[in-house]
């Protein structure tokens, strides 16, 4: 057994292993307490083998931020559901840490009628025209006391420890950061003064819990932007927190201005925080927790065995597969459902819902969406197309005991996932293909390759259910000279190679990723887009957007927006600007990224003749999350 599964102590609290479920957002009831599905969600992660379950931020007061952004711990009324959560988690030998937040400050939901409060009169992040109100000394004392009271409530509920939410550009980090804290009183100026507020929160926790409850502080050691906090100051902060009696430090990077460093995306490298974590660990004698795409079991193990940190925190990987710890412990690495860095879980928070997951359709619905236990080996299911929706339907049908056959017109499973994941910065997507391929083989699912489905052949067999997962094809717009261009998938999948000077027509998600991939091969790349900016209609989370834009800038990709391409030639393109002026852009490669169209020709031919469901891009070009969810539920709900 690796050191990853050895016990450790945080203060006087014994944790059974070195794996924590990282704090992430959840939903909440009208009064701020934990809903039953959130409790069940945490229970499932404890059941899956983590040693420490950490909740997302819990606000200790709504007096200053206005709209509650997360669950609340401020009243005895909140204890009942917290106690239920604790009991459920404890049943599986895991401990519970509640994260406490005095507020969001400048990153709160903007409200011009009642601007958020911060350390100073600074710009609100989401709406820079709004200036934050300034917390008075009395306000600071009030919030610090509420943090302590919240810890007392956690203790009443049987919680094991608390974590102070002091990272990522939220309120406490705003006080600790010179770019936002312009105060001239005891809470501004020197680093010691700027840290006074969080230190008073720590003192309040000690007071309200008689010094017996272990305390973690999640803080940003390096904010990752020029002119913001550097690691040198982060090391100083770590030492000050240690002197204040903190029991463990939870290291983080990034702020909202570079959110993809705090909450990574598919575009970040694995273990991208290692050097920062290592330096914080070397500067203190208390335990250090690290995170940042540590879901590769060998990487996670080396983090502990090489003494880089004392505990690892897994975030989105725990959403994707709650049983990551148990599978790693048993050596069943190939059975881990991989996180693909899409951040649909985070995006759901901004849509006002509970976490969802592209690769785990039962997330937050562990009981409601569980597969029926009954098995029926006499039912026959045909899957047409082995993209993500088809593969999910196939393994779900096999798990229900059905006889499953898959028809795939190409020579491999995966569908358009290959185009989505071939670029080096998106290889996390390829891990999903590998997972599905392994599971299909383990379940004995028969896949017929080079099989073009026809309505006649489908109807000639006795299928109880047909899943149409036929995917989508690239749309080639009616531009003069279009024969001189190729679709983006040809380049993304490596079937075509670019020349030295590349133009990508289309600045959506696929076009921008294609441009970044081509920039690794060509001398120069230009994105040409009809809309005023790239990624205008991309339906993805802000941190993904930031990360992709940063990569475009790093690769020096040019952008020509607000124009219409009128002609494609062998040696360039002609486009028209908003003043009807024509321009020539020389190039030797033109790539089309103008969207996709569904392969739905079988629908009309089968309608009313057989029981079928349409999933994924065959229904309409969409995202992985929709394909997987539709594939799963099409089989789960079979009677």
Task: Explain what this protein looks like in three dimensions.
- By secondary structure, the protein is an alpha/beta fold.
- It contains 22 helices and 27 strands.
- The strands form 7 sheets. It has an 8-stranded parallel barrel, surrounded by 7 helices. A 5-stranded parallel sheet has the order 15-14-13-16-27.
- Helix 1 packs parallel to helix 2, helix 3 (137-156) runs parallel beside helix 6 and helix 14 packs parallel to helix 16 (427-442).
- The radius of gyration is 26 Å and the shape is globular.
Short account of what is shown:
This protein is of the alpha/beta class and 639 residues long.
How are the secondary structure elements laid out?
Layout: E1 8-10, E2 13-15, E3 19-21, H1 36-47, E4 52-59, H2 79-90, E5 95-101, E6 117-118, E7 133-134, H3 137-156, E8 161-166, H4 171-176, H5 191-194, H6 196-208, E9 215-222, H7 231-243, E10 248-253, H8 259-262, H9 274-283, E11 288-290, H10 297-305, E12 311-314, H11 316-320, H12 324-330, H13 344-350, E13 380-384, H14 388-399, E14 403-408, H15 417-421, H16 427-442, E15 446-449, H17 455-459, E16 465-468, E17 472-474, E18 486-487, H18 488-492, E19 501-505, H19 509-518, E20 524-529, H20 542-554, E21 558-561, E22 564-569, E23 572-576, E24 582-586, E25 589-592, E26 596-598, H21 601-606, E27 612-614, H22 624-636
Helix pairs in contact: 1-2, 3-6, 7-9, 14-16, 14-22
């Amino acid at each position: 057994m690796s050191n990853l599964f050895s016990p450790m102590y945080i203060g006087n609290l014994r944790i059974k292993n070195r794996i924590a479920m990282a704090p992430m957002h959840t939903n909440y009831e009208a009064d701020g307490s934990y809903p039953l599905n959130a409790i069940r969600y945490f229970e499932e992660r404890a059941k899956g083998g983590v040693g420490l379950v950490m909740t997302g931020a819990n606000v200790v007061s709504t007096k200053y931020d206005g709209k509650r952004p997360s669950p609340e711990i401020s009243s005895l009324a909140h204890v009942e559901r917290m106690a239920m959560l604790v009991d459920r988690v404890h049943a599986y030998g895991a401990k519970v840490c509640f994260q406490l937040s005095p507020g969001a400050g400048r990153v709160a939901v903007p409200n011009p009628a009642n601007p958020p409060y911060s350390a100073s009169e600074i710009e609100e992040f989401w709406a820079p025209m709004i200036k934050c109100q300034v917390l008075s000394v009395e306000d600071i004392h009030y919030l610090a006391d509420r943090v302590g009271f919240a810890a007392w409530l956690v203790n009443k509920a049987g919680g094991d420890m608390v974590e102070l939410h002091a990272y990522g550009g939220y309120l406490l980090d705003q006080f600790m950061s010179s770019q936002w804290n312009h105060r001239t009183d005891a809470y501004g100026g020197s680093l010691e003064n700027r840290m006074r507020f969080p230190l008073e929160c720590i003192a309040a926790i000690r007071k309200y819990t008689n010094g017996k409850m272990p305390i973690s502080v999640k803080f940003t050691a390096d904010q990752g932007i020029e002119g913001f906090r550097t690691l040198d100051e982060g090391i100083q902060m770590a030492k000050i927190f240690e002197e204040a009696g903190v029991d463990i430090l939870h290291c983080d990077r990034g702020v909202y201005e570079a959110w993809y460093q705090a909450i990574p995306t598919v575009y970040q490298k694995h273990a991208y925080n290692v050097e920062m974590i290592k330096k914080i660990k070397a500067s203190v004698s208390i335990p250090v927790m690290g995170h940042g795409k540590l879901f590769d079991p060998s990487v996670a193990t080396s983090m502990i065995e090489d003494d880089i940190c004392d505990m690892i925190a897994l975030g989105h990987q725990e959403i994707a597969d709650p049983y990551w710890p148990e599978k790693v412990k048993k050596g069943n690495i190939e059975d881990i459902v991989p996180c693909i860095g899409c951040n649909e879980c985070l995006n759901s928070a901004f849509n006002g819902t509970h976490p969802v997951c592209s690769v785990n359709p039962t997330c937050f619905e562990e009981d409601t969406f569980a597969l029926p236990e009954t098995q029926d080996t006499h039912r026959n299911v045909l899957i047409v197309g082995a993209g993500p929706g088809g593969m999910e339907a196939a393994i779900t049908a096999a798990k229900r005991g059905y006889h499953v056959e898959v028809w795939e017109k190409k020579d491999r499973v995966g569908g358009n996932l290959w185009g989505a994941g071939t670029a080096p910065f998106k290889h996390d997507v390829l891990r999903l293909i590998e997972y599905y391929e392994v599971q299909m083989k383990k379940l004995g699912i028969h896949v017929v390759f080079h099989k073009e489905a026809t309505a006649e052949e489908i109807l000639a067999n006795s299928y109880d259910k047909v899943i149409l997962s036929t995917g989508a094809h690239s749309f080639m717009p009616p531009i003069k000279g279009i024969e001189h261009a190729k679709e983006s998938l040809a380049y993304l999948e490596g079937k075509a190679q670019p020349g030295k000077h590349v133009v990508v027509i289309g600045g959506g998600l696929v076009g921008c990723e294609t441009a970044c991939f081509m920039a690794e091969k060509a001398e120069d790349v230009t994105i040409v887009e009809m809309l005023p900016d790239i990624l205008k209609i991309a339906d993805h989370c802000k941190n993904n957007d930031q990360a992709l834009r940063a990569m475009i800038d790093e690769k020096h990709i040019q952008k020509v927006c607000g124009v219409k391409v009128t002609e494609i030639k062998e040696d360039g393109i002609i486009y028209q600007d908003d003043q009807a002026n024509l321009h020539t852009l020389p190039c030797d490669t033109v790539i089309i990224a103008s969207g996709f169209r569904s392969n739905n020709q079988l629908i009309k031919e089968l309608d009313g003749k057989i029981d079928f469901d349409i999933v994924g891009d065959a229904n309409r070009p969409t995202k992985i999350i929709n394909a997987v969810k539709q594939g799963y539920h099409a089989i789960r709900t079979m009677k």
